[in-house]
Amino acid sequence: MKIGILQAGYVPEPLAEKYGQYPAMFQRLLAGHGFEFETYVVAAGQFPESIHACDGWLITGSKDGAYEPHAYIPPLEDLIREIYAAEIPLAGICFGHQIMAQALGGKVAKFDGGWNLGQTRYQIGADEIQCLALHQDQVITKPAGAELIATSDFCVNAGFAYAGKRGTKAISFQFHPEFSPAYTRDSIAAKSGNLYTEDQAQTAIDAIGEQNDSTRIGQQLAEFFLAAQKTER
């Protein structure tokens, strides 16, 4: 199964030298399931010629706001709606979660409560998990077709599933299962004193442990793509 990674943002240097770009993080997260990957840097205007160029699609995070006037936003929203209508499996993480919601009728905005940094507790059904987060924007109005599957005290709309004729056709999460604890610490530290205070950054960094539920979410994403492939056979 070929997964098309729609890269909507960039890991800044020098972090990229140490950890790779977002597509590399997702390839590590989804390794071991037989997937092939192809990256389209939509942030630079690189889009697939067809929604059928890959068997499934995944939208990465970005520093950009889904509501900001970037040139790639409207064609990305069009692509999302086309993939969604065709019921080709589609997943989104952080910005990907937000732009999917916006394209499908929801609303995204900066959260008045500020930044969510580091290890965060989420409720998924009856289970509580911990995953890594780094965002201020949130989905404040969910699309009509979205089912809420993950939530937290800080971010109500933290995960959506979208039902199709053959099962779940799209899934998205606000948090970052592709981030490692080390990358998250370094990323928070790199923006310390700029986007948030040094005290906020250090508190978040100190709270990040080596164990979280990212692997579990990665498995859930893999199973989502694989289930869609089995349905198509």
Quick tags:
233 residues; transferase; GATASE; Class_I_gatase-like; two-stranded antiparallel sheet; ChyE-like
Proportion of strand residues: 25-35%
Backbone shape: globular
Question: What's the multimeric state?
Answer: single chain
Neighbour order of strands in the largest sheet: 2-1-3-4-11-10-9
- Class from helix and strand fractions: alpha/beta
Largest sheet: 7 strands, mixed
How large is the radius of gyration?
A: 17 Å
Overall pLDDT confidence: 96
Uncertain regions: pLDDT < 50 for 5+ in a row? none
| Secondary structure: helix percent | 25-40%
The CATH superfamily turns out to be Class I glutamine amidotransferase (GATase) domain
Query: What is the correct CATH architecture?
Result: 3-Layer(aba) Sandwich
Chart the SSEs and their pairings:
Elements (H helix, E strand, L loop, with lengths): L1 E5 L8 H5 L2 H8 L6 E5 L15 E4 L13 H13 L4 E4 L1 H9 L3 E4 L5 E9 L2 E9 L1 E5 L4 E5 L8 E6 L2 E7 L7 H10 L7 H10 L6 H19 L1
Parallel strand pairs: 1-2, 1-3, 3-4, 4-11
Antiparallel strand pairs: 5-8, 6-7, 9-10, 10-11
Helix pairs in contact: 3-4, 5-6
GO molecular function: transferase activity
Protein name: Glutamine amidotransferase
Pfam family, one: GATase
Structural account:
The chain has a seven-stranded mixed β-sheet, with helices on both faces. A two-stranded antiparallel ribbon has the order 5-8. The protein is 32% helix and 27% strand. The chain has one domain: Class I glutamine amidotransferase (GATase) domain (Rossmann fold, 3-Layer(aba) Sandwich). Strand 10 (159-164) and strand 11 form a beta hairpin. The chain has 233 residues and is of the alpha/beta class. It contains seven helices and eleven strands. The longest helix is centred in the C-terminal third of the chain and has 19 residues, at 214-232. Helix 5 packs antiparallel against helix 6. Residues 53-188 form the Glutamine amidotransferase domain. This is Glutamine amidotransferase.
